[in-house]
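Aim 2, interim progress. The first record below pairs a target sequence with its structure tokens.
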Amino acid sequence: MAYRPKKWSVPAIIIMSLLGIGIIYGVLTDMRSFLIPIIVFGLIYVLYKFPPDRWRSRSGSASPQVRPGNRSQPAKRPKSQRTPFRVIEGGKEDDDLPKYH
């Protein structure tokens, strides 16, 4: 029996093979119908791989540059004082009738 990875199911293999056959047939018969989608997906791929500087995240995966002479420890925040839990005594009128009736 042929080796098949566990993550590929039989319906997925059938759909992918029909998709591949359709793309090959479409390219062979009329290349112009595939020109615009190829350009759009190519542009999306290029912008994904090489985003413009204004779109890049400032706090992304890039590590911040540390200057050798400026190694100060971050300022420690003072711990807030814990206040004990207080119960405020209140009264609730136990009327069976609604207030606005």
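The second target in this work package is listed in the same format:
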Amino acid sequence: MTVNVYDLANNLERGICDLPEYKAVAESKQKVDADQTASALLKEFIDFQSKLQGLMQAGQAPTEKDQEEMQSFGKRIEENPVLKSYFDAQQALSVYMADIERIVFKPLQDLI
């Protein structure tokens, strides 16, 4: 019996989208998008994360100032109930995603 892995992958996609945790992230994201303050802070945070990733990819460690700025973002996000809810929902979904990633990539790990 031949299994069509593309069908399995498409079923997995639909299953993920049906998860209550996925729906909670989508709903939280809509609330972030509707809140000007939360939306601006999220964009600022994502831009800062991108900057840090670029530094690390270039082999540079974040400076003390960067670390302080990251802590400041953490505090500001915790203080914003809309963003806190969004990140909490993302965290709940990430548990599923980590499990799925482990399962999906296990056959490849077995080959190493």
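Residues 5-110 form a domain with the YheA-like fold fold (CATH 1.20.1500.10). This observation will shape the mutagenesis plan for the next reporting period.
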